[in-house]
């Protein structure tokens, strides 16, 4: 476990040579990675989402790729087709038969840029690969790489030509975060050293191997979680189904995802056990995008009220780890 904590620190430090002032967001992204999930980032253009995905991919040495883990970026547009992601059958003149040419989904780290600009038909192509790590083409099922991690972005400003992501698709994302702008001091430092940052991205070190990332995923599952914290997750999830301001509450699968993220988040923060504070920090990122609220005002208050009530119950118990 000591080696695991050391490796996480190494990876975080390496990413921070390029991504400045975003430690919390980096921790959330690594949490989704170690929980064997995917992450959705919503924000304005130019906040560093694409660079973040590239930096992560380049920090991991691939099995067959000298340039790091196999990284693919897909720009989602309204005219995109499922075959543009999955691949298609092309006719081989020599063999005189159709062969399957794999699409960009066959990779280790996928950046799905502006994911909500593609049609529901294209979104459905992503569902199987994100949930089951495989792609079915006709009557053949192709397994994806053991390490398959999707970082999807959506742009809240460009409302024209966008499709709301279906609930089933949103449920595949373990976390949804907002990248946000950096503080003024960090922004000034970026302006002074933007050439150095660009150089860091081009010459980023591969600090962990693919096997080490897979090992970290296994270690995350071993993190200790107190029975009362499991009960707290159950209480929060069931309360979202009863709350008058929430039309659609969280599912049982959401609760399992919540537990996986709590364990991974504890490991990312250098601990072998989950604390009450972890619940406080990640509940919004794990559950908010899975819920349908009655109105905008409810969206701002409902989940916070549920969380506050549960945190108050936990604080009286004085748990020991």
Automatic annotation (TrEMBL):
Residues 239-302 form the ChlI/MoxR AAA lid domain. Residues 38-175 form the ATPase AAA-3 domain. GO terms for molecular function: ATP binding; ATP hydrolysis activity. This is MoxR family ATPase. It comes from the Bacteria. Pfam families: AAA_3 (PF07726), AAA_lid_2 (PF17863).
